[in-house]
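quick q for whoever's on today - can somebody do inverse folding on this one?? i tried earlier but teh output was garbage lol. tokens:
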């Protein structure tokens, strides 16, 4: 893992546990034939169970592309990308769908269904998991919304919630099924400093309780200290001169 050699990091090989995300010599391209353009170059990265990793870097550096590949939202093309020990490179749609059931997603635009209440938005996420009894769905949705401080907003529609409250609903939706991995793309971009901090600390608390791995793509320097590790991308490559959180906090 040469690309990360100078980043102070408790990676999976050091902790002795199987990484939940393992990327090896990953390349990715957009377009076909003459228009084909390489967007990721020989990416190597391991993320351990329970680790909170922040990925930062300039716009257009490939962060979101890498996140969508890790999330099984598209099939990776070259190299190796294992999520929970399942290879995604060349994976079928059916296999990607199965992998996605173990992943929670939080996006900048929160992507709530506007015609559903907060509780219904969270419940909808649970309905994708057949193993959860129907009678438990409302209870679980209510409990996690209470955990994120929205117990008094269960029946509010998104249009009646603030930006920070909508993002909390999105966090509740992502974490209610107790996924092994949460992928967050610019979760604080549309929020003020306090709301952004609250949202990230909430993610951190819930993930630690559930021993869930979090990968956050962000430009927000105000939240870097929540990470166990920070990795830096530039021009489609994972570079070694990332920010060391231990140095930042001392």
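ok took a stab at it. sequence:
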């Amino acid at each position: 893992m040469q690309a990360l050699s100078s980043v102070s990091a408790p990676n999976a090989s050091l902790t002795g546990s199987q990484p939940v995300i393992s990327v090896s010599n990953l390349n990715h391209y957009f377009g076909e034939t003459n228009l084909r353009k390489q967007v990721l170059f020989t990416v190597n990265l391991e993320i351990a169970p329970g680790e909170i990793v922040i990925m930062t870097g300039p716009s257009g550096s490939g962060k979101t592309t890498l996140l969508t590949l890790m999330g099984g939202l598209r099939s990776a093309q070259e190299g190796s990308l294992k999520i929970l020990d399942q290879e995604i490179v060349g994976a079928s749609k059916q296999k990607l769908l199965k992998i996605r059931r173990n992943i929670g997603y939080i996006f900048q635009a929160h992507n709530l269904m506007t015609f559903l209440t907060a509780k219904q938005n969270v419940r909808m996420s649970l309905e994708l998991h057949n193993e959860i009894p129907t009678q438990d769905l409302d209870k679980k949705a209510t409990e996690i919304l209470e955990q994120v401080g929205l117990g008094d907003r269960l029946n509010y529609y998104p249009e009646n919630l603030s930006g920070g409250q909508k993002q909390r609903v999105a966090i509740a939706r992502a974490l209610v099924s107790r996924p092994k991995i949460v992928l967050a793309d610019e979760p604080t971009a549309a929020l003020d400093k306090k709301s952004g901090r609250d949202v990230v600390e909430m993610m951190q608390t819930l993930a630690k309780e559930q021993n869930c791995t979090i990968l956050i793509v962000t430009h927000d320097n105000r939240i870097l200290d929540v990470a166990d590790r920070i990795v830096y991308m530039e021009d489609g490559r994972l570079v070694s001169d990332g920010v060391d959180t231990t140095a930042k906090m001392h």
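fwiw The chain has a mean pLDDT of 82. also Strands lie at 21-30, 37-47, 52-56, 78-83, 86-87, 103-107, 181-185, 213-217, 229-234, 237-239. so keep that in mind when u check it
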